[in-house]
UniProtKB/TrEMBL annotation:
The gene is Cdh6. This is Cadherin-6. It comes from Nyctiprogne leucopyga. Keywords: Calcium, Cell adhesion, Cell membrane, Cleavage on pair of basic residues, Glycoprotein, Membrane, Metal-binding, Repeat, Signal, Transmembrane, Transmembrane helix. Pfam families: CADH_Y-type_LIR (PF01049), Cadherin (PF00028). Residues 185-214 are annotated as: Disordered.
Length: 715
């Protein structure tokens, strides 16, 4: 309550209040000076308020005393419970952890004044989660309280922690939070096979690397702690089978390493071991982290194809062997216990020329055509062996046949020899060196001998010297040669080899006589091919001739097509003919109106019929038709029209018969003069047009026009 010494109680003074919350949170009685709070005060919102009060004269509004300031402090009471920083905490620890292992720390705060009493002093306690976990009362640190907690038994724990103020005393306020604790896995469990023995069956036809079966050892751990590696440690199938690990399912996949054979062995026993790949040394005391099991694999018999005694055969045969000679034998047999008989055949896709054949019963291969080593040295064929009872069961084997050489080819020149000799040559002068080749193969190397043919040995103008190194030289026998007497010499040379049987051939050397200078340089020769060896062969000449013929045929066809091309339209004027038609809006005679104008000038003058009348009017003899003189026979016009008429009748590209044809031909003048149907023998002045009114309504407009003209003349 505020009171002024100047207040006499007569109501002349008025108290006013200003400052924090004045008029809203705090109000003052202007008559008595009592200050009251209008709302509940909260220290946590504002602990101190500063107010100013003054007494003023109610009538004049002037202060009667100086303004007074006073401070209102809010005393704290325990009205806020502790609040955790999180509603839910999540934490994890490894399983099998020691007692007292730190898990997580929780924190709660109290909004009350920590300097005033114990309102803000918080104490932690555990409401749920014992005996597995504990919490430190002052720090809120949660720790493990039980030894050897196993994730495989229980993985999730929910712990409830309470925070209470007033130091945990009675009457204090409290708050709670939940802590979810997960035990993480460690490798504390070894793999274990659910059974000690596994049985599998595999057909003997199972190809290598094919799976036979799957086995799995169970591990209670997860992730990398449950990874297992499988291996075959012992057994009679150690080298026949293998095992790998499926990383997705952690299964052991048993596969075939080598081809199985029921007839050889039909049962294999293996010992398979499963081992953890990530072992934790802390838990080795629990025992070895591996397990083993026995796997029995039964091999099943299947009908197998025949098996050849070798994976491939190599045979040799001389090229001169007669047809049907046996060059070798292949052997195959059925590996099954039934030992079914086998028949042989040659895969004709590998022997398209049918050079070889095979005995279907015993597998002997023989020739069916002559061989030639120089044409083909190796023949690679495929032999098929199939069971007679089941031809689908077949196998193949490659057979490589090498053709051995025999001396069946005579040596021949390495090239075509054509040389020249100068007219001024001297005796014993070398003019050409010869060499030879042989298609046959010689193990010790070829040895050729050269000599002149017997018919040329004595009378030849040249000599031949064998160099004993598979070459020979041609020398002149005399001084000077005359090309005008003999321009070309043909020297026969015999070439022989030293193989058995000896083969020889006679080759010809062409020697031309030419003019040379004193240094032996060629000047001129009747054989121009020696200087200009490049010429046109017969094939080239034929090709050129064919090109010329094709070109001529093309020109002829082009000219014919131009003559037969479509003719230009007869009406070539850019002006549309319809622009010249005058319409009188009168109905004509229709299709039967063939007498509208005289077309006699276009007809044969002898065929003109003067008595033809119009068929669209009443045939009255109102006036005599005008007779024109007989047209003079114009031969030029008649011939021209007849020629064009014939061309249009025979030309399929000509316009139709009723089209307008423009001939563009100027004759000697029209013998018919005017074509007007209104023209008569009388002149315009003598003509009476009253008859037009009798022709009917279709000629009314024309009659009106001429009657008007008569009226103008009369006037």
């Amino acid at each position: 309550q505020l009171h002024s010494d100047q207040d006499k109680g007569d109501g002349s003074l008025k108290y006013i209040l200003s400052g924090d919350g004045a008029g809203d949170l705090f109000i003052i009685n202007e008559n008595t000076g009592d200050i009251q709070a209008t709302k509940r005060l909260d220290r946590e919102e504002k602990p101190v308020y500063i107010l100013r009060a003054q007494a003023i004269n109610r009538r004049t509004g002037r202060p009667v005393e100086p303004e007074s300031e006073f401070i209102i402090k809010i005393h704290d009471i325990n009205d806020n419970e502790p609040m955790f920083t999180k509603d839910v905490y999540n934490a994890s620890i490894p399983e099998m952890s020691d007692v007292g292992t730190f898990v997580v720390q929780v924190t709660a705060t109290d909004a009350d004044d920590p300097t005033y009493g114990n309102s803000a002093k918080v104490v932690y306690s555990i409401l749920q989660g014992q005996p597995y976990f504990s919490v430190e009362s002052e720090t809120g640190i949660i720790k493990t309280a039980l030894l050897n907690m196993d994730r495989e038994n229980r993985e999730q724990y929910q712990v409830v922690i309470q925070a209470k103020d007033m130091g945990g005393q009675m009457g204090g306020l409290s708050g709670t939070t939940t802590v979810n604790i997960t035990l993480t896995d460690v490798n504390d469990n070894p793999p274990r096979f659910p059974q000690s023995t596994y049985q599998f069956r595999a057909p003997e036809s199972t190809p290598p690397d094919s799976p036979v079966g799957r086995i799995k050892a169970n591990d209670a751990d997860v992730d990398e702690n449950a990874e297992i590696e499988y291996s075959i440690t012992e057994g009679d199938g150690y080298d026949m089978f293998g095992i790998t690990t499926d990383k997705d399912t952690q299964e052991g996949i048993i596969t075939v390493k080598k081809a199985l054979d029921f007839e050889n062995k039909n049962l294999y026993i293996l010992k398979v071991e499963a081992t953890n790949t990530h072992v934790d040394p802390r838990f080795l005391y629990l025992g070895p982290f591996k397990d083993s099991a026995t796997v029995r694999i039964q091999v099943e018999d299947v009908d197998e194809p025949p098996v050849f005694s070798r994976p491939a055969y190599i045979m040799e045969v001389k090229e001169d062997v007669p047809i049907n000679s046996v060059i070798g034998t292949v052997t195959a047999q059925d590996p099954d216990a039934a030992k079914n008989p086998v028949k042989y055949s040659v895969d004709r896709h590998t022997d398209m020329d049918r050079v070889f054949n095979i005995n279907s019963g015993n597998g002997s291969i023989f020739t069916s055509k002559p061989l030639d080593r120089e044409t083909l040295l190796w023949h690679n064929i495929t032999v098929i062996a199939a069971e007679i009872n089941n031809p689908k069961q077949s196998s193949r084997v490659p057979v490589f046949i090498k053709v051995l050489d025999v001396n069946d080819n005579a040596p021949e020149f390495a090239m075509f020899y054509e040389t020249f000799v100068c007219e001024n040559a001297k005796a014993e002068q070398l003019i050409q060196t010869l060499s030879a080749v042989d298609k046959d193969d010689s193990y010790s190397g070829h040895q050729f001998s050269f000599s002149l043919a017997p018919e040329a040995a004595g009378s030849s103008n040249f000599t031949l010297q064998d160099n004993r190194d598979n070459t020979a030289g041609i020398f002149t026998r005399k001084n000077r040669y005359n090309r005008h007497e003999i321009s070309t010499y043909f020297l026969p040379v015999v070439i022989s080899d030293n193989d058995y049987p000896i083969q020889s051939s006679t080759e010809t050397v062409t020697i031309r006589v030419c003019a040379c200078d004193h240094r032996g340089k060629l000047l001129s020769c009747n054989a121009e091919a020696l200087i200009h060896p490049t010429g046109l062969s017969t094939g080239a000449l034929i090709a050129i001739l064919l090109c010329i013929i094709i070109l001529l045929v093309t020109v002829v066809l082009f000219a014919a097509l131009r003559r037969q091309r479509k003719k230009e339209p007869l009406i070539i004027s850019k002006e549309d003919i319809r622009d010249n038609i005058v319409s009188y809006n009168d109905e004509g005679g229709g299709e039967e109106d063939t007498q509208a104008f005289d077309i006699g000038t276009l007809r044969n003058p002898e065929a003109i019929d003067d008595n033809k009348l119009r068929r669209d009017i009443v045939p009255e003899t109102l006036f005599m038709p005008r007779r024109t003189a007989a047209a003079r026979d114009n031969t030029d016009v008649r011939d021209f029209i007849n020629q064009r008429l014939k061309e249009n009748d025979t030309d399929p590209t000509a316009p139709p018969y009723d089209s307008l044809a423009t001939y563009a031909y100027e004759g000697n003048g029209s013998v018919a003069e005017s074509l007007s149907s209104l023209e008569s023998v009388t002149t315009d002045g003598d003509q009476d047009y009253d008859y037009l009114s009798d022709w009917g309504p279709r000629f009314k407009k024309l009659a009106d026009m001429y009657s008007a003209m008569d009226s103008d003349k009369d006037s």
